[in-house]
Amino acid sequence: MRLQLASWLEVETYLKASSGIIIPIGSTEQHGPTGFVGTDALAAEGVAWKVGERIGAMVAPTISVGMAQHHLGFPGSMTLRPSTLIAVVRDTVESLARAGFDRFFFLNGHGGNIHTVNAAFNEIYAEKSLSPASNRPAVRCTMMNWFMCNGVRELALELYGDAEGSHATASEVSLTYHLFPGAAARIKDAPLTPEIAPEGKIYDADDFRRSFPDGRMGSNPKLSTAEHGARFLEIATDELAESYQAFVTNR
Ligand code: NI
């Protein structure tokens, strides 16, 4: 069930049976000439909705802007500073915790969020640990990356080998082509030169644009198809539904 499409009475009823919630988190950043700026948020949200549907879990609104400072050299990219994203994650968790949610399953679509979101979890725990007489509820947070699911890694290797790359990857582009075929038709034939993009390290936005001129890192998303995307969605849903259930039932 999507939180945004539930009434507060339905949320109250849900909380009698479960205190778990899925929070999709992504990013709004360039994904090369043939990928959507919203790739990371759209992919995380697509997987989260499917997991929620399958097992009847509540899904919060997507945190669609993440930590993506290195992409700001390309138009359309947006970032939250790490300190801002930490505040967003804390306030999101604490708002929902007040109502009785205590198991927060962040379903992530962007590698650049990982350190910052984990720092936010530690801020949340520290707040409780450092408050001696606190009546704050004990919450647990976890973050799973759909693109790191074992089955997803295996299928990406089988379909793309080294051309999967590490940014604007063939697998994430496939997943969004499956979710948004109409928009994909508009952008998927943009030329890519070279076929496989360079790899390297990430520093600031100007440096990124110099090192990775069309925005991709190591990938060839010309290999991406909507049909592959349907398979990635299915595999990620299976694995993450299982991870979610283990996470919320472990007391
Ligand atoms: Ni991405």
Label the CATH architecture: 3-Layer(aba) Sandwich
CATH names the topology as Rossmann fold
Which percent range fits the helix content? 40-55%
Small-molecule binders: nickel (II) ion
CATH class: Alpha Beta
Beta-strand content: 5-15%
The whole-number mean of residue pLDDT values reads: 97
For the secondary structure, the number of strands is 4
Can you describe this structure?
With 251 residues, the protein is α/β, with parallel strands linked by helices. The chain has one domain: Creatininase (Rossmann fold, 3-Layer(aba) Sandwich). It is 48% helix and 8% strand. A four-stranded parallel sheet has the order 2-1-3-4, sandwiched between helices. Helix 4 links the parallel strand 3 and strand 4. Helix 5 runs antiparallel to helix 9. The model has no long low-confidence stretch (mean pLDDT 97). Nickel (II) ion binds next to helix 2. The site of nickel (II) ion (NI) has 5 residues, from helix 2.
Which structural traits does this protein have?
alpha/beta, Rossmann fold, binds nickel (II) ion
